[in-house]
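Dear colleagues,

I hope this message finds you well. In preparation for our joint manuscript, I am sending the Lipoprotein (Sphingobacterium paramultivorum) sequence together with its predicted structure, so that both groups work from identical material. I would be grateful if you could confirm receipt.
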Amino acid sequence: MRLFSIAVYFIFSALLLISCEERRRDTKVLSYIAHSERDSARLDLNLFESRFHGKLFFYRPGGEVDSGDIRGNIQKDTLLGDYYYTPFGWGQKKRRPFVLLKKGSLYILGTGAEQVYMGIPHYIPSTVNFQDPKFIFEKVNH
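The corresponding structure tokens are as follows:
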């Protein structure tokens, strides 16, 4: 009887742990690349319903690379968040605002006037601009 009650307790505990586990969707990393004169950039994105995260690399002549993590919220066709990166030749990481506009299968890197509020950098909404972008990301087919 004691062995039976231990087995039931173990099965019940296992089912409880499985049901409480966070549900994650299997996501596929989408890769994009962009070129601007002698510079290039690579974007690796994980998209969810209302959030995104990924990696962003900027390559400049002479082997200079800025690389870091992006994360933020998806608002309709705009990805708005921040870029936490290590600039080439620096020891400390920096945080900058980040915004992308999805246009068809392309992502356009936006700019704007930066502001820091409570230690979090962001673009002032009325200044976000996608005109004359430096980088337009195209999907990489693997």
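For the figure legend, we might mention the following. The first strand starts at residue 30 and ends at 36. The chain has one helix and ten strands.

With kind regards,
E.M.
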